[in-house]
């Protein structure tokens, strides 16, 4: 008789069409405290002519702790309730992007660039996210809303001046000068740069 491993059970499966015009199917699996991602590729054999390849990126998540409950009650609640809660939320148009949002104590955005590169960006500015949904109206075009761990509703938009196609969200700023040095300032969590600019002068220093 074959032994079954109950420690690793698939709790949620999502197949989402990402990329340009949704032409790149992506399979996401939630197993315990991890999100595994598989990308589809063409395969000449078989009926579907398609297989999935595991991506190198793995998202580690953990369940919310229920307050005012003993550890036994918390374990029971986790087994009966948390596993049934959908943490993977697909969206089709948030600031022009389509992808999957991962709810939980450590929320993430999952995008697929026009070049087919997988990008994962954490969103820890407001702590954990309990639920998430796209939202669109006149005052919040192509936006989204979510409830944080304090049960507060947030109505937001993704900043359109940022590009999410790189490993970090980036914004290109024209300096119009020559850059010489870049260093990171730990206290302010900013990057400091030293630049120079050529200007005409009729004086010289002795």
| Largest beta sheet: strand ordering | 1-2-3-4
Mean pLDDT: 83
Task: Summarize the main sheet.
Answer: 4 strands, antiparallel
**Name of the top-level CATH class:** Mainly Beta
Stretches where pLDDT is under 50 for at least 5 consecutive residues are: 69-81
Q: What does the radius of gyration come to?
A: 23 Å
Corresponding CATH superfamily: YVTN repeat-like/Quinoprotein amine dehydrogenase
Shape, please?
Answer: extended
Hey, roughly how much beta strand do the residues contain?
A: 35-45%
The CATH topology is given as Methylamine Dehydrogenase, Chain H
Sum up the structure in keywords:
single chain, 206 residues, mainly beta, four-stranded antiparallel beta sheet, 13 strands
What is the gist of this entry?
5% of the residues lie in helices and 45% in strands. The chain has 206 residues and is mainly β. It has one domain (10-156): Methylamine Dehydrogenase, Chain H (7 Propeller).
């Amino acid at each position: 008789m074959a032994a079954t491993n109950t420690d690793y059970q698939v709790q949620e499966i999502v197949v989402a069409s990402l990329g340009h015009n949704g032409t790149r199917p992506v399979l996401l699996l939630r197993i315990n405290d991890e999100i595994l991602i598989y990308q589809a590729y063409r395969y000449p054999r078989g009926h579907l002519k398609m297989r999935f390849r595991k991506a190198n990126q793995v998202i580690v998540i953990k369940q919310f702790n229920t307050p005012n409950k003993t550890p036994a009650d918390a374990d029971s609640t986790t087994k009966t309730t948390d596993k049934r809660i959908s943490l993977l939320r697909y969206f089709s148009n948030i600031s022009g992007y389509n992808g999957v949002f991962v709810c939980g104590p450590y929320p993430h955005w999952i995008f697929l660039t026009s070049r087919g590169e997988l990008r994962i960006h954490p969103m820890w500015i407001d702590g954990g996210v309990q639920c998430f949904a796209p939202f669109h109206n006149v005052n919040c075009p192509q936006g989204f809303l979510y409830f944080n761990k304090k049960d507060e509703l947030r109505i937001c938009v993704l900043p359109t001046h940022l590009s999410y196609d790189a490993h970090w969200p980036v914004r290109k700023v024209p300096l119009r000068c020559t850059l010489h040095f870049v260093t990171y300032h730990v206290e302010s969590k900013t990057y400091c740069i030293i630049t120079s600019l050529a200007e005409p002068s009729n004086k010289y220093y002795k």
